[in-house]
Amino acid sequence: MKATILVGGKATRLHPLTYNIPKAMVPVLNTPFLEHVIRHLSSHGIKDIILAQSHFSQLIESYFGNGSQFGVKLRYIIEDIPLGTAGAVKNAEKYLDETFLVLNGDIFTDLDITAMIAFHQARTAKVTITLTPVDDPTSYGLVETNARSRVTRFLEKPSRKQITTNMINAGTYILEPDTLNRIPPQTNFSFERELFPLLLDQGEPIYGYPSTVYWIDIGTPEKYLQLHRDLLSGSSVQHSYPVGEEIAIVEQSSIDPTTQIKGPILIGSNCTIGRRVKLIGPLVIGSASTISEEAVIEASIIWKNARLEPGVNLRDSIIADNGRLNANSIIHGSVLGDNVTVASGCKLEPGSKIPPGTVVKPKGDS
Ligand code: GTP
Q: pLDDT for 11-59, tens place per residue?
């Protein structure tokens, strides 16, 4: 079976991390997010994958190439203007002549794709939508089903009064190719708001495949941090990450013996950790980063090539590529885009989101 992964969104909610890269290339445990998704598909025997892109298509293609390095065959379809989730798949129609999978490209899940395919086939469904339970469904698309799992109603972003189920559309679908006939070509069209309700109105058999395995979308910085906390505490069955008190240090990094470490921590290659630094997990440090003496870093994600000067205090934050945190700066609960510099002694307001390339100076300095 072929799969189409949707990787052409604007990713505005993940700003400032995604001004210069697509959500698909945001690192998760020092590996582009999309690589995790592709490896998961491949582990279920799905090796023929179409990437539906619009923004930053070059960045994705230059990393993944034809997919052979990852044991899959990759094809790229590029939209001149974003076509929405269903419009993007319509754009890939020439490759989709049999039952196919569609994945939102910003979801990390342990979904049993093999079992979902069997579920779809057993019911001769036109569409199967994965469903997952959430505590607060108000910001998602609710999917109501009957006792036989057939979808009876869709409800986008319901108010509290409208909530009748906590099962939401989890962003993985199996579709029959003739459903593509209902999508207008080269038109912005959505699965969630347009195609699925249309098929339901027409009486087509749409089923919900309920799953309670690990699932999260990395739509916002908070969710992105949550994904790391979860992976480092062993919530997902995928991969062998450092979990609990473990520490994984990739080759050629140098850690001073006076460094205090409380895992789980993942340190990328060619990093240097200086004297009396405190590293408190869950923490990820990207490759080629330098953490100088007496810095204290806790519960944060640092991308590659960061330079943290002596005495930096960093907590609950995300620092994108090439971050420069000068001596004694204090950064708590903040998100810094790529190439941000924070001046010595500067304290950021918690909740700060700093766009790429900014030089943050103490108040009063011009
Ligand atoms: P926000 O701007 O933060 O809402 O993010 P987004 O643009 O990524 O939208 P959303 O999170 O709803 O998208 C879900 C998935 O669909 C993501 O993997 C997106 O990359 C993808 N997606 C959304 N719109 C399009 C589109 O127009 N074309 C393609 N190819 N993919 C899309």
A: 999 999 999 999 999 999 999 999 999 999 999 999 999 999 987 889 9
pTM above 0.85, yes or no: yes
48-53 and 107-109: which strand pairing?
A: unpaired
Q: Domains for the chain: give ranges and CATH numbers.
A: 2-233 (3.90.550.10), 254-360 (2.160.10.10)
Please give the number of the atom of ligand 1 that sits closest to the Cα of 7. 20
Looking at every residue in the chain, the average pLDDT score rounds to 95
Asked whether the beta carbons of 144 and 164 are under 8 A apart, the reply is: yes
Residue from 14, 50, 104 to probe ligand 1 pocket by mutation (most atoms less than 8 Å from CB): 104
Sequence-separated (6 or more) residues with CB below 8 Å from residue 127: 173, 174, 175, 176, 179, 196, 199, 204, 205, 206, 207
In eight-state DSSP terms, residue 44 is T
The C-alpha angle with vertex 226 and arms to 345 and 253, in degrees rounded to 5, equals 60
Of 112, 335, 307, 350, the residue nearest 224 (C-alpha): 335
